[in-house]
Amino acid sequence: MVVCAILLAAETAWADGGIAVPGTAQAETEKECGACHAPLLPITHKMIEWRQIMANLSDHMGEDASLPENVRADIEAYLVANASDAVSIRRSE
User: Fold this and answer.
1) Can you tell me the distance from the alpha carbon of 50 to that of 7, in angstroms, rounded to the nearest whole number?
2) Which of 3, 17, 33, 51 could make a disulfide contact with 39, Cβ separation 3.0–4.6 Å?
3) At what angle do helices 69-81 and 25-34 cross, to 10 degrees?
4) Distance CA 58, CA 76 (A)
5) Residue 14: its pLDDT value, please?
6) How far is CA 8 from the centre of its chain?
């Protein structure tokens, strides 16, 4: 049980604000979003905009882009953690 928790923690990055970003989230984003359009860099939108986009995948650009909840949550975490107004982004400017 402890080994599983350690392995899970090793694959998860914690962004500012306590957002857990799984190590696979960027690849999931590129795969899922890239299946229909060129995936945008997370910095192209603010956190609230990414949350709105990810909350309305059933009508995404006129298409149903719904995802399993675990995949949707991973992608949202990655996008929000790396959004243009994320604390970690502002620090690097």
Assistant:
1) 28
2) 33
3) 110
4) 15
5) 53
6) 17
